[in-house]
């Protein structure tokens, strides 16, 4: 197979007539894909995967063909080039892989039911019907779908249905679009509808296993997001409707199919009467993300998968821009600082990480591109950096132009930089190239040398890294005018420090707002100055200070032992994000202690010392009228109190549990997981375990289920751990989409050995079950997140190194081996100093 040949170069489709017959009972799909297009050569290839092709005609004449799954192709010999209409008859199995066309399973009033849905990104449209399955191969589509239909069932797709004849549902012709964005679903659904100011129909669809009120929040956010984007982009929503559909089985978080966005139930539906604010924020940002794609990704699409970042980085920024506009009181950008920013900074510091923009051809490697820390989080930071540089007016003007130029077509990163460059008068491309084409990021060191304030940039690594002398064009965002706007050199001298300090009246700082993708290492003089004025800093600046120090400690540039004494200075903060990063640093100290030791007791005491006043202030239960910050801080503090084994806190939680024992789902959602975890860990029994696992099976409330999945693995009882592991492969209890969270939970607690044994023994089962989807590699990532001993490192290598050549796994295994090795070395080198600092801070 000529790997570099895209099928689109051989045959360019303009229109499809796809007719499908889907039978849930026999688990069979059959149909005909009729494709009109322009044959550039007589030997062409059309994508298919896992299909049987029974006939191919070109302009009504049978033509020779072969097909195989190796090349995922039907190879067809035509008699002429030019305009051709192909008709391909096919059949395929309906499988449970959560890719292509697949069933979701759920129960309604004790009856097992199915909802059929689709997931085509990146390369699974070819599992549903033969097509040129490449983003550039845009065409119009007529879908006609028949299924083993029962009375009362609904079918929906990208476009409205126009007629039903003889049980076949015909949908309106789509606009010109990519195959990976086609979607449909059918089954027994409920829905709620509304209309935007501009007349777009908005709807939320779900199974009837949910209460009707669970659809309301999403409907409101979807409507207002579309209204926001129509205004912000100055470009109308291009389709008649925007459906949001919750699927009970869904591998990723959500998928931006044009006009029919699909979601995990947890990311769309929520009980307005009992849902944590944090969950509402997450659901809202997921919806806003997918709806941002309706223009950026769907209307204008990347030319090839190497520019996937263009879609995802952009949508990942816009979800915050949109929610900040429609819910300004939420201060949603603060969540960006505790979510995306540290994720990107951590991962991007490991040598061997991919750059945001990467060349890619093999389908298995395309799925591995979805490195959320890089393509989503780092990419979003790049665009946040651009937005800060050029401002919203230029951003909006540039986007309007970009959509007008490329609508219903494709574009590359260079096209976006050109549009934004024209709008802003800046050479945006030149600045961004250093960030997008190079992996990693710099640490900028600021020092006072011989009285002069100097800065220096160098690539930052956690673990061994080969310094290749990379340089970045760094937007410095300093509070001192003497610092350049863009720092493109290795070194710069800013002037006489004493004079600069005198003139500005405040400590020298870089990356104010934390919008640029670099960290700062201040020398002792500068750091002491900042710490002496700590209370003058806003929440983001305080977070940034601790976050950068933590990264420097991970990278061996300073010691964790130097950070520990600083922690109490942040402990009284009323800011949720400062508390988030504070306890994030504290949690990082857990790797330095062994279970059951004096050192562990001292660390628990440190958590108690840090959280004691806050738990007294906040209490276990949400209070009416409290601030968003208090509501968001409480869970962080409760988690700390549980680790501290604070007797009063544990008893208080136990009492709340007892009061709600008959209806645990009714516990306030914001704190429910901690009350359940406390009960399982400290007051648990086999009866409680069974009660919770049974609730997990029966409940359709995704947030309650997630709480149970987080609480049960805290059990110290090895017999109960074994029961959990036995449920891992029982899809009636734990759906494959939720298994990774369970696995991680057990691995991070007393059941570590059992979970680790399970994944090694049953790797083949795991690969067979979820190996086909893009989330597969994250099982390795979450394992890596937990391991920190030489024994586990050796076992990890022994198990994964033989799998190094598995397509799609190579980079993850290489990176993760390095991550664990670095952590093990850090623990060995630092544990004595860190534990001494903890003891001194507790007792001092
Ligand atoms: Zn996305």
From TrEMBL:
Domain ERAP1-like C-terminal stretches: 510-814
Reactions catalysed according to its record: Release of an N-terminal amino acid, Xaa-|-Yaa- from a peptide, amide or arylamide. Xaa is preferably Ala, but may be most amino acids including Pro (slow action). When a terminal hydrophobic residue is followed by a prolyl residue, the two may be released as an intact Xaa-Pro dipeptide
Entry keywords, A to Z: Aminopeptidase, Hydrolase, Metal-binding, Metalloprotease, Protease, Zinc
Protein name: Aminopeptidase
Ranges of residues in domain Aminopeptidase N-like N-terminal: 12-181
The EC number(s) this enzyme carries: 3.4.11.-
Keyword Ion transport listed: no
Domain of life: Bacteria
Domain Peptidase M1 membrane alanine aminopeptidase: 217-435
Statement: the UniProt record of this protein carries the keyword Metal-binding: yes
Gene Ontology MF, one: hydrolase activity
Cofactor: Zn(2+)
Cofactor: binding comment: Binds 1 zinc ion per subunit.
Species annotation: Levilactobacillus angrenensis
Similarity comment text for this entry: Belongs to the peptidase M1 family.
């Amino acid at each position: 197979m000529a790997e570099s040949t895209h099928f689109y170069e051989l045959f360019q489709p303009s229109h499809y007539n796809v007719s499908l017959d889907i039978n849930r009972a026999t688990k069979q799909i059959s149909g005909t894909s009729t494709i009109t297009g322009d044959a550039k050569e007589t030997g062409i290839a059309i994508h298919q995967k896992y299909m049987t092709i029974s006939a191919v005609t070109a302009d009504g004449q049978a033509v020779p063909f072969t097909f195989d799954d190796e090349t995922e192709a039907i190879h067809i010999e035509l008699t002429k080039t030019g305009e051709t209409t192909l008709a391909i008859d096919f059949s395929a199995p309906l499988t449970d892989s959560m890719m292509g066309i697949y069933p979701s399973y759920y129960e309604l009033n004790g009856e097992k039911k199915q909802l059929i849905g689709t997931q085509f990104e990146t390369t699974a449209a070819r599992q549903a019907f033969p097509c040129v399955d490449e983003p550039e191969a845009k065409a119009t589509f007529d879908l006609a779908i028949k299924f083993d239909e029962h009375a009362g069932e609904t079918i929906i797709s990208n476009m409205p249905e126009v007629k039903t004849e003889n049980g076949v549902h015909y949908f309106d012709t789509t606009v010109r679009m990519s195959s990976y964005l086609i979607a449909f679903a059918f089954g027994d659904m409920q829905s709620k509808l509304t209309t935007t100011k501009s007349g777009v129909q908005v709807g939320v669809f779900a199974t009837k296993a949910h209460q009707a009120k669970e659809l309301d929040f999403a409907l409101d956010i979807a409507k207002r997001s579309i209204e926001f984007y129509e205004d912000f982009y100055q470009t109308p929503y291009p389709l008649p409707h925007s459906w949001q559909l919750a699927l009970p089985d869904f591998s990723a978080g959500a998928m931006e199919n044009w006009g029919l966005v699909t979601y995990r139930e947890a990311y769309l539906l929520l009980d307005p009467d009992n849902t944590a604010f944090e969950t509402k924020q997450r659901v809202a940002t997921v919806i806003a993300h997918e709806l941002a794609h309706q223009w950026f990704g769907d209307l204008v699409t990347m030319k090839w998968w190497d520019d996937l970042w263009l879609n995802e980085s952009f949508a990942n920024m816009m979800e915050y821009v949109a929610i900040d506009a429609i819910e300004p009181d939420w201060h949603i950008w603060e969540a960006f600082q505790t979510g995306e920013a540290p994720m990107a900074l951590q991962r991007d510091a490991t040598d061997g990480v991919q750059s945001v923009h990467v060349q890619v051809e093999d389908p298995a490697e395309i799925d591995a591109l979805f490195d959320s820390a890089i393509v989503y989080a780092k990419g979003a930071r790049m665009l946040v950096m651009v937005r800060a540089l050029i401002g919203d007016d230029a951003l909006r003007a540039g986007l309007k132009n970009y959509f007008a130029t490329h609508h219903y077509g494709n574009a590359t990163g260079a096209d976006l930089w050109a549009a934004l460059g024209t709008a802003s008068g800046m050479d945006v491309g030149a600045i961004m190239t250093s960030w997008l084409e190079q992996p990693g990021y710099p640490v900028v060191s600021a020092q006072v040398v011989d009285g002069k304030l100097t800065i220096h940039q160098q690539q930052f690594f956690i673990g061994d890294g080969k310094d290749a002398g990379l340089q970045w064009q760094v937007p410095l965002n300093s509070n001192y005018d003497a610092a350049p706007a863009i720092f493109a050199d290795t070194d710069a001298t800013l002037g006489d420090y004493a004079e600069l300090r005198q003139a500005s009246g405040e400590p020298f700082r870089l990356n104010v707002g934390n919008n640029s993708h670099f960290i700062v290492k201040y020398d002792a003089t500068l750091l002491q100055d900042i710490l002496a004025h700590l209370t003058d800093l806003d929440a983001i600046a305080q977070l940034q200070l601790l976050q950068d120090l933590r990264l420097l400690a991970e990278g061996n540039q300073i010691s964790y032992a130097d950070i520990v004494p600083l922690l109490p200075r942040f402990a009284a903060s009323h800011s949720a994000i400062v508390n988030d990063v504070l306890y994030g640093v504290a949690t990082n100290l857990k790797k330095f202690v062994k279970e059951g030791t004096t050192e562990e007791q001292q660390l628990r005491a440190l958590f108690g010392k840090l959280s004691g006043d806050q738990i007294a202030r906040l209490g276990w239960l949400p209070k009416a009228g409290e601030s968003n910050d208090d509501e968001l801080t409480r869970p962080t503090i409760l988690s700390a109190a549980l680790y501290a084994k604070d007797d009063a806190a544990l008893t208080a939680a136990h009492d709340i549990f007892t009061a709600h024992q008959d209806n645990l789902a009714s516990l306030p959602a914001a704190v429910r997981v901690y009350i359940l975890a406390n009960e399982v860990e400290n007051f648990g029994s086999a009866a409680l375990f069974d009660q919770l696992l049974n609730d997990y099976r029966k409940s359709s409330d995704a947030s309650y289920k997630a709480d149970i999945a987080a609480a049960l693995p805290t059990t110290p009882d090895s017999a109960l751990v074994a029961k959990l592991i036995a449920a891992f492969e029982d899809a009636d209890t734990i759906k494959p989409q939720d298994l990774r969270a369970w696995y991680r939970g057990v691995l991070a607690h007393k059941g570590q050995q059992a979970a680790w044994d399970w994944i090694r023994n049953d790797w083949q089962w795991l690969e067979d079950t979820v190996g086909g989807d893009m989330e597969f590699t994250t099982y390795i990532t979450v394992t890596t997140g937990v391991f920190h001993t030489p024994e586990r490192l050796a076992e990890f290598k022994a198990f994964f190194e033989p799998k190094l050549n598995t397509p799609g796994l190579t980079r993850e295994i290489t990176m993760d081996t390095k991550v664990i090795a670095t952590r093990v070395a850090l623990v060995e080198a630092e544990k004595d100093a860190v534990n001494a600092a903890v003891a001194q801070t507790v007792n001092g």
